[in-house]
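[step 3/7] inverse_fold.run input=structure_tokens len=243
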């Protein structure tokens, strides 16, 4: 399921959704270039990776979760109607790996753009984006997974896909890191595949862990003139799930 990956999903016009939030209870984009911006989230179910450090295993780990209990099929009109209840401009489509369902996402993205919204995809960078998504108003936060995140890089680092994103002019590259060695590995990937702009985010699910790892990474990130992003949801909300 890499490169021109196999897709998943229901009939045309339906998406497999893990959760959606940000309309009834407002929230922010918590990471990357738009960190701190008001945002609405649509989290899609299913993923083609099995990262040990993943914090949304309910989107793919069927040893722990029953997919019929942790996902629903929702139509494009219903999702659009839900989003339009809010004045918030930014809609973040995340996962799982949302581009596994991009065939059925194209009509939703078109309608969102027609309504004056902008869209950010959170993607692991293993699936080539459909040209119909490479349009004004759409950005991709591409987050390749390092071996330290608990994933075999032979599966999670797909050079032709990373280069396609870099060439699109619509991508930022956001890496989760926990050590200076991770920053060195990021630099190798950046140089080899021409990735820019680069954001580095500390791994951690508590304020203390994020703060500690930020201090470990900061000098190494600054010396390369990259961006450093926090995990705002962890700091802002006592229970960041669904926020």
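[step 3/7] decode complete -> sequence:
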């Amino acid at each position: 399921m890499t490169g021109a990956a196999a897709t998943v999903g229901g009939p045309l016009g339906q998406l497999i959704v893990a959760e959606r939030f940000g309309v009834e209870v407002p929230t922010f984009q918590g990471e990357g270039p738009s960190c701190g911006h008001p945002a609405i989230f649509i989290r899609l179910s299913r993923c083609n990776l099995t990262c040990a450090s993943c914090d949304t295993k309910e989107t793919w780990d069927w040893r722990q979760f029953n997919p019929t209990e942790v996902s629903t099929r929702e139509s494009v009109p219903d999702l659009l109607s839900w989003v339009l209840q809010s004045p918030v401009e930014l809609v973040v489509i995340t996962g799982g790996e949302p581009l596994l369902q991009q065939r059925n996402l194209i009509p939703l993205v078109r309608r969102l753009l027609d309504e004056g919204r902008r869209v950010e995809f959170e993607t692991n960078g293993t699936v080539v984006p459909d040209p119909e998504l490479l349009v004004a108003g759409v950005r991709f936060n591409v987050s390749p997974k390092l071996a330290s995140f608990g994933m075999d890089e032979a599966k999670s680092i797909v050079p032709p896909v990373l280069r396609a994103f870099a060439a699109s002019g619509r991508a930022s590259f956001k890496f989760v890191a926990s050590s200076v060695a991770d920053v060195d590995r990021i630099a190798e990937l950046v140089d080899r595949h021409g990735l820019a702009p680069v954001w580095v985010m500390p791994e951690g699910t508590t304020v203390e862990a994020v703060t500690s790892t930020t201090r470990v990474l900061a000098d190494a990130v600054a010396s390369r003139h990259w961006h450093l992003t926090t995990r705002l949801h962890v700091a802002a909300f006592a229970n960041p799930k669904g926020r």
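[step 4/7] annotate
The two ends are 29 Å apart (CA to CA).
DSSP finds eight helices and ten strands in the chain.
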